[in-house]
Amino acid sequence: MPSSTSQPQTPDHVTLRAGRYTATTTAAGGALASLRHDDRDLVLPSGGQLGRPAFEGAICAPWPNRVVDGRWEHDGQQHELAITEPDRGHALHGFVHDQRWNLLESTATTARWGLDTQPQPGYPWALTLATAYELDAEGGLTWQVTAQQRPIETGPAGPAPYGVTVHPYFVAGEGPAQDWTLELPAESVLTVDERLVPQDLVPVGEASLDLRGGRMLGEQQIDHAFGGLTERVARLTTPAGSGVEVTWSADHRWVQIFTAQWDARRPRHAVALEPMTCPPDAFNSGTDLIMLTEEPVTVGWQVRAL
């Protein structure tokens, strides 16, 4: 195993190389800025700055997706988060994506970034997080996030509610995303209203969102959380057969699919696949929340080229 390299001052980026893969990770949110196989992007590259409006490559914690209206209750205490999705009025994707992480160690094929969070409005716990990237010539990119509560004198007693996802926009290959096929073995999907507030968990066939056998995306716009996962894998492929495969650890019972139609005048060119440990608005529903103590909790994802 290569020895770690001490970093007296955290750089902005660390680039990893293994075989035909190259990945760039960044101090801005501890995020994945790029992932390539040969000369092909597997994720939509980002500049690696703070404040990425589309959350490209971000780590979304201590909650993924939305807390509706930014309000939630825990142990009889009302909490109010900053509204970070003003057009819909929700608190979106946590807050660690918009903080600078510190490089803990790196080698030619690995990087590990860390962050100690402070209590935030609406989230009075302090956390310690680390994200680890490892690039392998055969298996592609393995990406893990470890979190634990860091007790502080002024913090609340008891475990900290927690959820996490990562937010790459995957690129199958040439051509518009409308021509790509997405395969996700999920039996149910969470319907939403016009503000993307969760409504009902229904069979995928009832919602016309059955991706189990693979489905060409076409013009359908998707921004939904899928559950009832029978396997922990998703594949995005072009008609020519190139593509990307994403797998995840057992802690993830949900996957958000976002077909990324930012501008109706342009073809879609990437699809966000976000394996989540909990569904949208889990701080209110309590569904699949992780309760963090001082014991570390690690979850992970793997990405490889097809």
Main beta-sheet annotation: 9 strands, antiparallel
- End-to-end Cα distance, whole Å, is 27 Å
State the shape: globular
**Structural class determined from secondary elements:** mainly beta
Please count the helical segments.
1
CATH architecture: Distorted Sandwich
The run of helices and strands is EEEEEEEEEEEEEEEEEEEEEEEEEHEE
* Structural domain count: 1
The average pLDDT score comes to 93
Proportion in β-strands = 35-45%
What is the CATH topology assignment? Beta-galactosidase, Chain A, domain 5
| Beta-strand segment tally | 27
Low-confidence stretches: 1-7
Pfam families: Aldose_epim (PF01263)
Organism: Ornithinimicrobium faecis
Protein name: Galactose mutarotase
Throw out a few tags for this protein.
306 residues; Beta-galactosidase, Chain A, domain 5; six-stranded antiparallel β-sheet; disordered N terminus; 1 helix; globular; 1% helix; nine-stranded antiparallel β-sheet; mainly beta; 27 strands
What's the arrangement of secondary structure elements?
Elements lengths: L12 E6 L2 E6 L5 E6 L2 E2 L16 E3 L5 E2 L3 E4 L2 E4 L10 E2 L9 E5 L3 E7 L10 E10 L3 E10 L10 E3 L2 E3 L1 E2 L10 E3 L2 E7 L5 E6 L11 E2 L6 E7 L3 E5 L5 E6 L5 E5 L12 E6 L5 H4 L4 E3 L4 E9 L1
Antiparallel strand pairs: 1-2, 2-3, 3-4, 5-15, 6-9, 7-8, 10-11, 11-12, 12-13, 13-27, 14-26, 16-25, 17-20, 17-22, 18-19, 18-21, 21-24, 22-23, 23-27, 24-25
Pfam family, one: Aldose_epim
InterPro entries: Aldose_1/G6P_1-epimerase, Gal_mutarotase_sf_dom, GH-type_carb-bd
Protein name: Galactose mutarotase
